[in-house]
Amino acid sequence: MFWEKKLDAWVEQIRTVSALPLRLVLWNGQQYDFSTQTPEVTLKVPQASALTSLLNPSLANLGEAYVEGKIDVDGPVKSIIKVAGSLAANSLSGDSTLSRFVRSVKHTKKKDAEAIRYHYDVSNDFYKLWLDENMVYSCAYFENGDEDLASAQIKKIDHILTKIKLQPGQTLLDIGCGWGALVLRAAQKFGAKCVGVTLSENQYALAKERVERAGLSDRIEIRLQDYRDVTGTFDRITSVGMFEHVGLKNLPLYFSHINKLLADDGLVMNHGITSTDVENGESPYGGGEFIDKYVFPAGELPHIGLVLRTMQEGGLEAFDVENLRRHYAKTCGVWADNFEARSDQIKKLTDEKRYRIWRVYLAGSAYAFERDWISLYQVVCGKSNRSAQSLPWSRRYIYDAA
Fold first, then answer.
1. Into how many domains does the chain fold?
2. In a domain? residue 297
3. Which of 274, 339, 342, 344 is nearest to 309 (CA)?
4. Of 191, 259, 328, 373, which residue has the fewest beta carbons closer than 10 angstroms?
């Protein structure tokens, strides 16, 4: 049959360039081993129609086939992702397939709210099973590399608040406040008066509950609000894991609105995922397409160069930039391990499709950060044209405080 010849040729092509610990099992019982190694991963194809995705194994095609139940995969999830990445890299060729295309996404308040709720409003209990006890859903900071996740997340928050020199009595706006961990820490340890905004109804409800339980309602206000609707003046502003939802074309507006809300001598921390493609393109081999379709609808990642440029266009001067890519690779790896360890409990909280999406998304993100397909930058900035004498002479203040 035609498909048999094509499949035989494809398997042989892969074998000649890479020895993968992979076994392919077809609906008729036929098996293909991709090396002499003991298979770590078994890919099962239950029907002939699924071969289309397999013979064009972009990460988008493989991911879609898996989450839609067209194929099944057995093995450790990190091995599954590694094998999928190798299949894509060794099978695809040509600029049209490998290039990091740039999507143009129209962002409105309504669409952005829908996208946020799709991702974050799965259920709070779902996230509790694999995040740390404070439910911090962003890159942790492993100062020494041997911290557990909870400690590394607290260190991340303290690292941010120390970088922006947060002082008792100052006002802090946290854009995209999640379940409230940063504003709680800012009020409890640093003595700040905080406003946290989110578009997720689940996050809003739990963050308010946590603030009330901590007895900090007089120091922290949680709002279900778009950042574009925030008014007032704040001494400090943080945005952690949020600007990925803003949109490339909206970045100058985003930063100019932050500038408008910032006190003249204030400081801002923007902590977010970036593309490593200088043209702001997607992750290679279709990884970005999968994320857009199943995980973060309408999300867009700018290159750090675009971040710094649009900050300046928005009237902000960057004065400290730190790359935490390796920290996010480790963070996502721990999340993926937690997800695997609690898979039975997670399956009771959501359907099989959602389970499969998050399973490959977490492990796939660790893989992407590890290989420099995407990165994570913390950028501290303030209003342009401020006195140069108002800034610290070195970064020592960050580490002396710790």
1. 2
2. yes
3. 274
4. 191
Phi, psi of 256 (to 5 degrees): -70, -35
CA distance 316 to 101: 29
Distances in Å between the alpha carbon of 72 and those of 23, 26, 46, 76, 197? 12, 11, 8, 13, 40
Give the SS3 label for residue 274.
strand
Q: Among 8-22, 108-122, 384-398, which stretch is predicted with the lowest mean pLDDT?
A: 108-122
Cα three-residue angle 210-152-80, rounded to 5 degrees: 105
Upper half-sphere CA count for residue 303 (Cβ side, 13 Å): 12
pLDDT, position 52: 86
Per-residue confidence (pLDDT) for residue 103, from 0 to 100 = 59
Higher pLDDT, 326 or 298: 326
Within this chain, do residues 27 and 116 fall inside the same structural domain, yes or no? no
Q: Which residues sit opposite 268 in a β-bridge?
A: 237, 381
pLDDT(94) > 60: no
Main-chain phi, psi angles of 392, to 5 degrees: -60, 150
DSSP assignment of 300-317, as one string?
A: ---BHHHHHHHHHHTTEE
pLDDT per residue as tens digits for the range 37-93: 899 999 999 988 888 888 888 999 999 999 999 999 999 999 999 999 999 888 775
pLDDT value of residue 177? 98
DSSP H/E element including 362: helix 352-370
Is 53 part of a structural domain of the chain?
A: yes
Pairing mode, if any, of strands 41-45 and 72-74? antiparallel
Note whether residue 103 is domain-resident.
no
The answer on 84 and 138 residing in a single domain is no
Query: Given this model, what pLDDT does residue 10 score?
Result: 85
Residues in a beta bridge with 267: 236
Q: Which of 333, 339, 340 lies closest to 366, judged by CA?
A: 333
Query: What is the overall mean pLDDT for the chain?
Result: 91
Same-domain pairing of 256 and 142: yes
CA 224 to each of CA 59, 244, 360: distance values in angstroms, whole numbers, following the listed order: 35, 19, 30
Helix (H) or strand (E) holding 112: helix 109-120
Helix (H, G, I), strand (E, B) or coil at 371: coil
Domain carrying residue 90: 2-98
Q: Which pTM was predicted?
A: 0.93
**239 pairs with which residues across the strands?**
175, 270
Q: Please say if the pLDDT value at position 293 is more than 50.
A: yes
